[in-house]
Design a protein that fits this description.
Layout lengths: L10 E3 L5 E3 H7 L11 H11 L4 H8 L3 H29 L2 E5 L8 H12 L7 H12 L3 E2 L2 E2 L3 E5 L5 E5 L3
Helix pairs in contact: 1-2, 2-4, 3-4
C-alpha cells in the first residue's frame, strides 16, 4: 500500500522494500498538475513505468488493480500523444514556409520544392537534398514508400530552418 495514498503522493514501497519517491520523481521532471494534460495518477503511473516498475507492482504500491494501472497508463499515453500532436500542429501553423506535397510526388522532387519556397520566403535551410529527403521520409513514416509519396504531406520550415512534416487529410 502506498504511503500518503490519501494525499495523492509521497514515497511508495514495494514488496521487496525498494522505495520510489513519486513526488520527487514528478518534481524532478517538472510535472505541474495545474498545467498538464495528465492527471496526477496518470503522471504517477508513467513516472514509475518509465523507471521500469511493472504494472502489478505499481498496483500494489498504489493500492489498486493491475487492470486499473493498465487503463490509467493507456489513457496517459494517449493524452501524451494528443499533446504532441497539438504542439506539432501549432508549430506547423507558425512556420513561415509551408509546402504541400501531393500524393504521388517523387520524394526526389521534394527538396527543390522546399528550397524554392524557402528562397521566396527568405528562410535558410541548413540541409542538403539527401538530408532533407531523409528528414521528410523519416517523419512521414509509411506515407512514403520507396520514392513515392503515398499520402499528402505538409512540409513546414521554421525561421530557424527546422523542417517539420505532417500528414494532411485531403
Amino acid at each position: 500500500m502506498a504511503d500518503g495514498e490519501g494525499d495523492g503522493g509521497g514515497a511508495t514501497t514495494s514488496d521487496d522494500d525498494e522505495v520510489f519517491d513519486v513526488d520527487a520523481a514528478l518534481s524532478e521532471v517538472g510535472f505541474d498538475a495545474e498545467e498538464s494534460v495528465l492527471t496526477r495518477r496518470q503522471a504517477e503511473v508513467l513516472v514509475l513505468r518509465e523507471r521500469g516498475v511493472q504494472q502489478s507492482r505499481i498496483a500494489d504500491m498504489l493500492g489498486t488493480s493491475r487492470a486499473n494501472v493498465s487503463s490509467v497508463e493507456s489513457s496517459a499515453r494517449r493524452n501524451v500523444e494528443k499533446a504532441r500532436e497539438t504542439v506539432a500542429f501549432a508549430e506547423a501553423l507558425a512556420a513561415p514556409v509551408q509546402i504541400s506535397v501531393e500524393k504521388g510526388t517523387d520524394l526526389y522532387d521534394v527538396p527543390k520544392q522546399v528550397y524554392d519556397a524557402c528562397d521566396e520566403a527568405g528562410v535558410k535551410v541548413n540541409r542538403t537534398a539527401p538530408e532533407l529527403m531523409k528528414v521528410v521520409s523519416d517523419a512521414a513514416g509509411d506515407a512514403i514508400q520507396g520514392r513515392e509519396v503515398r499520402e499528402s504531406l505538409l512540409v513546414g520550415v521554421t525561421t530557424g530552418g527546422t523542417v517539420q512534416v505532417r500528414r494532411t487529410t485531403e
